[in-house]
């Protein structure tokens, strides 16, 4: 009988044995309780939110956690299973499981089991087999006492045939799903020691979080098991298992686990039971009294936009148009309310107001001298600053029509637009100053840049730079609208872009970015085109002094708009060095797009790292998968991503003269986008070239 036939027969025998066995499933009678004051809410780095708890009267029945000391580590109270993460939102719990292994020194099978309220997650886990000439299978019991067996075979006769990619396709590793309701299982390996190739001395079989495992050839060695201590992270689904559904639970208020108001009950999606969630507009812990607190939407303008007057209310918010206007303020379409008074009535009202004003002036005559003196002093200061900042020259340019799109704002106009530069209006800050969201008298929404300081040596050139800014007309550059010259440090006014910055979209606080590869490639191309335009398309080359993901804004359709370039005009630098610096910093933005990491990020050990430095090190050591975003590789393909990696490497070159121009970068990214949109063979796999 051939080796393959033996392997299939062994698989069938194992399946029959598991189908013939029976294991009783334990069931816990869960009751809703309230944690005592002073219960620990953390064990090491793991948060322990109720209904979980450590110690007497600190947990709901079945949710007890033990905390080992030195170092502190959390464990399930039964089964000695280490806990890595507890989520109230997803109702998931991440634990460490043993893997089955077989190397030259012997074979180790692995078994795992959990009791209520836990079940192994069918949506977050995959059963994975790693090795060559290896059959791995898993068998166990479901919560309805049904037996279950499945497995897969991984083959590879030559090292060159092993797939170099994060997914498993049967060459070096294979994967399969598990069913819902699984509460115990054992993993087995059948490893062909005779025909096993030398580059794959070990085989492994394990259940693990599918987002954790990424395959490469190094996983075929003994080091894979040693590095992970022969353990893997896996996900458990948890729920309140009794009563079996929301209607049954709500009929028993004494044991109903969803506490206080503002909660919602959802039936479990894995096994019997139910889950508690905070109602829409609330956040917190739905399992404790008063645990779901109202979200103040007015403090989160990026998530809950309002272009008028925002008023928070329980479970939501009201957004109304400013006085004298009407429309939908959440979409910025408020318009002036037409006057209901006829012209004679308005004229009569005007005369009445005039008489009242005259009377008021007479009444305030006693303090006239003080007011006049103060106003005169302030006016003189504004005129002095206006002249020093080149205001009169700018007016001449406007009258001569050399500048036709610049509006000169007064200090009072911008104060009104920003509620006197209220901190609530701040939408950005950086090394050059603060940016405020303002609403002008004509209801246009603008971004107002208030710089911290200015280079006195270049103040004389300020008006020339304003003229240069007024000439910029590019789809992917934030439009310059005007300036205020009545202060020692002039203020610049730009169009307001409503969808936030690329940084906010790439690095959300509570979940991974959902920005797809095609959109990232488009944003990179548009940004490069904008920077190339700034370098060459205007009368004088405009160099951007602060290229970063914070300064790449996104419109409603995710089109890029480069901002922040006005600041570079006031910084005395060598132009050639500056353009080289721009290309380097664009390279960092490109890295953020393909790795999903921040320019300065925190690694697994909690240390701050430079993304550019880490990238260059991993590329030099031929370890690209350590830093690239796996989802980007899957969506874009290795060949295409390799081209983007090459551009980033060139932009980050130590020698500035070796870096490509922004025009060349834009053209190459444009070609890659066209290539991405062309139909291509589904099974084609390229490879990332190491430079």
UniProtKB/TrEMBL annotation:
Tagged with keyword Isomerase: no
Keywords, in A-Z order: ATP-binding, Disulfide bond, EGF-like domain, Glycoprotein, Kinase, Membrane, Nucleotide-binding, Serine/threonine-protein kinase, Signal, Transferase, Transmembrane, Transmembrane helix
A single Gene Ontology CC term: plasma membrane
GO MF entries: ATP binding; calcium ion binding; polysaccharide binding; protein serine/threonine kinase activity
GO-annotated biological processes: cell surface receptor signaling pathway
InterPro entries noted in UniProt: EGF (IPR000742), EGF-like_Ca-bd_dom (IPR001881), EGF-type_Asp/Asn_hydroxyl_site (IPR000152), EGF_Ca-bd_CS (IPR018097), Kinase-like_dom_sf (IPR011009), NOTCH1_EGF-like (IPR049883), Prot_kinase_dom (IPR000719), Protein_kinase_ATP_BS (IPR017441)
Domain Protein kinase: start-end pairs: 421-673
Lineage of origin: Eukaryota, Viridiplantae, Streptophyta, Embryophyta, Tracheophyta
UniProt topology in membrane: Single-pass type I membrane protein
PROSITE patterns per the UniProt record, alphabetical: ASX_HYDROXYL (PS00010), EGF_3 (PS50026), EGF_CA (PS01187), PROTEIN_KINASE_ATP (PS00107), PROTEIN_KINASE_DOM (PS50011), PROTEIN_KINASE_ST (PS00108)
Signal peptide (UniProt feature, chain positions): 1-25
Domain of life where this protein originates: Eukaryota
The EGF-like domain, residue ranges: 294-331
Annotated compartments: Membrane
CDD domains attached to this UniProt entry: EGF_CA
Main localization category: membrane
TM annotation in the entry: 347-367
Residues that bind ATP: 450
Protein name: Protein kinase domain-containing protein
């Amino acid at each position: 009988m051939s080796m393959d036939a033996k392997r299939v027969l062994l698989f069938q025998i194992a399946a029959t044995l598991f189908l013939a066995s029976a294991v009783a499933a334990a069931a816990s009678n869960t009751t809703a309780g309230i944690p005592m004051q002073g219960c620990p809410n953390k064990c090491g780095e793991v948060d322990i939110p109720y209904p979980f708890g450590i110690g007497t009267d600190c947990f709901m029945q079945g949710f007890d956690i033990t905390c080992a000391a030195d170092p502190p580590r959390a464990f399930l109270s039964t089964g000695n299973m280490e806990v890595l993460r507890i989520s109230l939102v997803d109702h998931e719990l991440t634990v460490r499981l043993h893997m089955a292994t077989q190397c030259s020194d012997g074979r180790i099978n692995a078994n795992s089991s959990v009791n209520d309220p836990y079940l192994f997650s069918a949506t977050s886990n995959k059963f994975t087999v790693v090795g060559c000439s290896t059959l791995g299978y898993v068998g166990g019991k479901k919560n309805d006492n049904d037996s279950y067996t499945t497995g897969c075979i991984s083959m590879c006769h030559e090292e060159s045939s092993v797939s170099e990619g994060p997914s498993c396709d049967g060459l070096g590793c294979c994967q399969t799903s598990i069913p819902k309701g699984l509460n115990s299982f054992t993993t087995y390996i059948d490893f062909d020691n005779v025909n096993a190739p030398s580059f794959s001395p070990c085989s492994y079989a394990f259940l693990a979080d599918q987002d954790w495992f990424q395959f490469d050839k190094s996983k075929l060695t003994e080091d894979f098991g040693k590095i992970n201590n022969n353990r893997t992270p896996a996900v458990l689904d948890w729920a309140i298992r009794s009563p079996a559904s929301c209607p049954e639970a709500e009929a028993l208020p004494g044991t109903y686990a969803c506490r206080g108001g503002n909660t919602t009950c959802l039936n479990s999606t894995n096994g019997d039971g139910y889950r508690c969630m905070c109602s829409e507009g609330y956040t917190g812990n739905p399992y404790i009294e008063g645990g779901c607190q109202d979200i103040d939407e007015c403090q989160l303008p990026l998530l809950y936009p309002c272009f008028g007057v925002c008023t928070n209310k329980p479970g939501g918010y009201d957004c109304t148009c400013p006085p004298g206007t009407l429309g939908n303020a959440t979409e910025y379409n408020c318009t002036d309310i037409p006057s209901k008074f006829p012209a004679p009535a308005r004229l009569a009202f005007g005369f009445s107001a005039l008489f009242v004003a005259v009377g008021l002036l007479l009444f305030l005559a006693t303090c006239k001298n003080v007011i006049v003196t103060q106003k005169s002093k302030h006016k003189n200061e504004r005129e002095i600053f206006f002249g020093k900042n080149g205001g009169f020259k700018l007016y001449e340019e406007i009258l001569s029509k050399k500048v036709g799109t610049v509006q000169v704002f007064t200090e009072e106009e911008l104060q009104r637009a920003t509620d006197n530069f209220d901190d609530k209006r701040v939408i950005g800050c950086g090394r050059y100053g603060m940016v405020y969201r303002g609403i002008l008298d004509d209801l246009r929404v603008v971004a107002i840049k208030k710089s911290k300081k200015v280079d006195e040596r270049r103040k004389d050139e300020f008006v020339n730079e304003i003229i240069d800014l007024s000439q910029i007309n590019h789809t992917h550059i934030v439009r310059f609208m005007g300036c205020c010259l009545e202060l020692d440090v002039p203020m610049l006014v730009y169009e307001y872009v409503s969808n936030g910055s690329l940084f906010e979209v790439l690095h959300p606080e509570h979940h991974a970015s959902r920005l797809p590869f095609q959109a990232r490639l488009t944003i990179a191309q548009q940004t490069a085109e904008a920077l190339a335009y700034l370098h060459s398309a205007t009368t004088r080359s405009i160099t951007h002094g602060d290229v970063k993901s914070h300064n790449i804004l996104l419109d409603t359709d995710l089109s890029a708009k480069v901002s922040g370039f006005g600041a570079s005009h006031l910084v005395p630098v060598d132009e050639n060095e500056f353009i080289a610096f721009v290309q380097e910093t664009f390279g960092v933005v490109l890295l953020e797009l393909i790795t999903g990491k921040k320019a300065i990020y925190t690694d697994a050990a909690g240390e701050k790292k430079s993304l550019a430095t880490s990238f260059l090190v991993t590329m030099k050591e031929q370890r690209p998968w350590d830093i690239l975003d796996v989802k980007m590789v899957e969506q874009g393909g290795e060949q295409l991503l390799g081209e983007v990696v090459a551009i980033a490497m060139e932009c980050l070159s130590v020698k500035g003269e070796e870096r490509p121009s922004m025009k060349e970068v834009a053209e190459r990214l444009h070609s890659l986008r066209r290539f991405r949109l062309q139909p291509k063979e589904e099974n084609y796999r390229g490879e990332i070239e190491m430079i």
